Protein: Glutamate-1-semialdehyde 2,1-aminomutase
Organism: Thalassotalea euphylliae
Amino acid sequence: MQKSAELFEQAKSIIPGGVNSPVRAFNGVGGTPCFIERADGAYIFDADGKKYTDYVGSWGPMILGHNHPAIRNAVLKAVENGLSFGAPTALEIEMAEKVREVVPSMESLRMVSSGTEATMSAIRLARGYTGRDKILKFEGCYHGHADSLLVKAGSGALTMGVPNSPGIPEDFAQHTLTVSFNNLDEVKQVFAELGDQIACIIVEPVAGNMNCIPPVAGFLEGLRQVCDEHGSVLIFDEVMTGFRVALGGAQAHYQVQPDLTTLGKVIGGGMPVGAFGGKQAIMDYIAPVGPVYQAGTLSGNPIAMAAGLASLNELCQGDKHQQLAANTEKVAKGFKAAAEKHGIALSINYVGAMFGFFFTEEETITSYAQATACDGERFKRFFHLMLEEGFYLAPSAFEASFLSTAHTDEDIENTIAAAERCFAKLAA
Ligand code: PMP
């Protein structure tokens, strides 16, 4: 860690906390973050030359593994034609058509450059479309760092204990209503009182920013019904779940159709990309067709589109998601069995290619309250023991971990074997 430690010190002298996005600083687990030099397949290599099997995957985009040749070659080819035009390209149509083919509820869609932009734009659109100001989100869900959405937020905001960030005017925050994830009764109560003022519900259909919490049976269906009854827009934030929990995202997996969907991460193959889209009648409110303004100089950037399209085309070849889901189950169940052998209480959640584990006596974790009550100190020790062993898990108890198609059976067996050694040390 010598070189990483030196770089971290140097970085802290010029970049706040030494990082350009908070969770990278290892705030959730303490210690020195690994500075990464390169990555290939299922592995990342740090500045000290140490190799790690990676379960973060750049927080999601690397579903095909790092440095995938199809994506790399598409980018290299695109670069030869120029980096940005600020004018429309045929590639953007191809990309939009590919996304719609896989996520048909996105009848019309627009590209942006990050997940934050996607959710921020979708919220503005829902407000413009309904003429209402209030939005409803769930405690512990993270939808990027737009003002309205950093209220009781998950991910780095939760890790750092600032789910309600300073800098957000009370006048904005008061329009964001928050209720408990997986609690339909609370949603119904709020709608009974304020339904005619609520523009939208935004939800991570599988919560991935307070560890990994799938929806309980009937939850997503219930949200759909409430929105229909009250004329509110249902937004599935599939920035994390899209193309990951199933090819068609959580909406395909759970068979519930939102009005709007937000995407990011995976659809860029590693380049900065996001998208929002949905029902034509709603999307027609977006400028230049409609009055709701939204724009971006680098939106639909040709290099990002080339990477994204190559990634999605590759992801659609064969049934990659069956293998991803089977491997994810192997890791999750392997962790559970290894922990049990050493008397460590562990609860696991997994859907498609995302998983989470909780140090708790509880059988299943379905809520924010349960997730935040787990043994955080034990998580930190386990994380660092795994890191020493050469396995890079999400550096926070409030983030999901990800598998890629590059993880082999051998990688998975090695990971479980290492986890067992680490659980043994925890138990000692
Ligand atoms: N929504 C969800 C569900 C996310 O997980 C994230 C990022 N982790 C975002 C939105 C924001 O995306 P970005 O970091 O690209 O702005």
Remarks:
- The pocket of 4'-deoxy-4'-aminopyridoxal-5'-phosphate is lined by residues 59, 114-116, 119, 142-144, 155, 204, 208-209, 237, 239-240, 264, 274 (CB under 6 Å).
- The chain has a mean pLDDT of 96.
- The longest helix spans residues 320-341.
- Residues 24 and 422 are 23 Å apart (CA to CA).
